[in-house]
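Per reviewer request, we include the raw input and output of the structure prediction for the construct analysed in the revised manuscript.
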Amino acid sequence: MATDLSLRARIPQLTDRIVDSYRDIASLNHLGHCPLPSSVAVIEIAEQLKEIIFPGYRRRQNLNLDNVVYYVGDLVDSLHDSLTEQIARALRYGADVLGIDCDKKKIADFEMIAQEKAIQFLETIPDLRSVLASDVKAAHDGDPASQAADEIIFCYPGLEAITVYRIAHELQKLDVPLIPRMLSEWAHSRTGIDIHPGAKIGRSFFIDHGTGVVVGETSEIADNVKLYQGVTLGAISFPRDADGNIIRGQKRHPTLEEGVVVYSNVTILGGETVIGANSVVGAGVSILNKRIEPNTIVTVEKPTLRFHEAS
């Protein structure tokens, strides 16, 4: 009992030490600033959006064209409110980074802007569904193991990652800070597929298997492209200014033209790299700042296998 009391007596001192570290290591704190978007709320927004995009597949079943209008209407109304709140928080965060105080007047301004951005985003849903329908078809056409579109929507991590990417990309286009990255990293943790919301990806995009796929921020992917697991569309190096700071906003990642297929464990690097239309990149290839002409098959020279008698 005495030992237990002795340990408890150390807790206030430990608390003081932890709080002192908040002063000493301020880079790991978000104290005294505008509130950040809620990760729980942002994930719930994503789940509700998937419920609207793929009705009848997720939480609520037994829907039909007679009752779905009421269900979707309630979801859209709820989403507008939650999106407005989280986008306003993200906008205040963006202003906070620039050193702008988030006083009451500015908070009202941010909420008004967020309300408009929320509506603009929700208005993209019909077009998002059209693009995602092409992605589902590409998965079904490109994978003989799939039995039906239902299986792809239910089970395929590639479609999950692409769905969240397309949601995040629309928010990125509306200049919403932070939330697109929150969404993409949530999808990354669930699927093992890392697609930056800034990447530009066309219709009928299919990621087969998917684990370990990385698509960098300035990647450009045309229509009808297929990637397998372990593909990296990455950058080589980061140009810096005279003060040694990274120069942002330049194209650092590859371009894949229409109809390209990239097999497993391929590394394609550099903003000057272009894989020409209808080309195939074989497994294990590394490409660095090269232009591959259209209709080209790129492979690694076949290695020689050696067999030794087991001892």
